[in-house]
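User: Reviewer 2 asked us to show a designed sequence for the structure in our supplementary figure. I'm pasting the structure tokens here. Could you produce the per-position amino acids so we can include them in the response letter?
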């Protein structure tokens, strides 16, 4: 299996402990700040021993943030006082469950139909096009899902709601309400997400940055404008799709 140059270049970021033994597998914890736990164990990123969440393992934050591979070239960033669970993991596919708090999913490439998912309660979000997606789960169970870019399908309460760029979906026991928005909420988590994304982008030489995200729809790959990625991420055949 040929790994993408994005994963390799991440190893070169000063002051960040990315493992040189990186598997590129979904669930690999790439970066943490503050208090982050897997089970009851405090997470310490070790460049020689990458930590990969096993199925059904949970990662939770207290006064901290975490960044984890969601799939090859894509990331899940976890806000403070949040908890996620690894449900399914592979090189180009992943499913996580949000139990509480906030996450931002930065999807570079959707490798196949239903390959990338987020579960919240009885609902399911399937990504169909690369982009940035923020999930906020309130204490009362209401889910707010901001689609800054990209596309996906939110399935809940017997309905399938297609979502696209600049749409906000709010899910409660009453159903799914969809509206519009301009930007992610202006808070410290959004600022941290943007900082991490810029750090990763800065590690990739300009002439090697991909100009498009690649999505998957109705069995066919299609592309949407985007600033980053790597030219030599595996194609469908090398990814086993």
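Assistant: Here is a per-position design you can include in the supplement:
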């Amino acid at each position: 299996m040929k790994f993408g140059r994005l994963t390799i270049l991440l190893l070169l970021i000063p002051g960040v402990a990315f493992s040189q033994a990186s598997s590129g597998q979904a669930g690999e914890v790439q970066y943490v700040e503050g208090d982050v736990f897997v089970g009851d164990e405090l997470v310490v990123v070790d460049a020689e021993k990458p930590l990969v969440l096993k199925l059904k393992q949970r990662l939770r934050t207290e006064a901290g943030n975490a960044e984890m591979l969601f799939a090859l070239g894509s990331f899940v960033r976890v806000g403070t006082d949040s908890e996620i669970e690894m449900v399914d993991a592979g090189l180009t596919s992943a499913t996580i469950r949000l139990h509480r708090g906030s996450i931002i999913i930065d999807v570079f490439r959707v490798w196949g139909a239903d390959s990338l998912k987020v579960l919240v309660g009885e609902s399911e979000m399937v990504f169909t096009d690369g982009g940035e997606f923020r999930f906020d789960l309130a204490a009362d169970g209401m889910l707010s899902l901001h689609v800054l870019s990209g596309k996906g399908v939110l399935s809940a309460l017997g309905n399938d709601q297609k979502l696209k760029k600049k749409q906000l979906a709010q899910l409660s026991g009453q159903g799914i309400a969809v509206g519009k928005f301009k930007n992610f909420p202006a808070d410290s988590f959004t600022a941290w997400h943007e900082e991490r994304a810029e750090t990763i982008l800065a590690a990739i030489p300009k002439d090697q940055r991909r100009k498009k995200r690649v999505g998957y729809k109705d069995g066919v790959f299609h592309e949407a404008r985007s600033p980053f990625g790597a030219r030599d991420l595996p194609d469908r055949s090398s990814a086993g799709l």
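For the response letter, you might also mention the following. DSSP finds two helices and 14 strands in the chain. Confidence is low (pLDDT under 50) at residues 1-20, 211-241.
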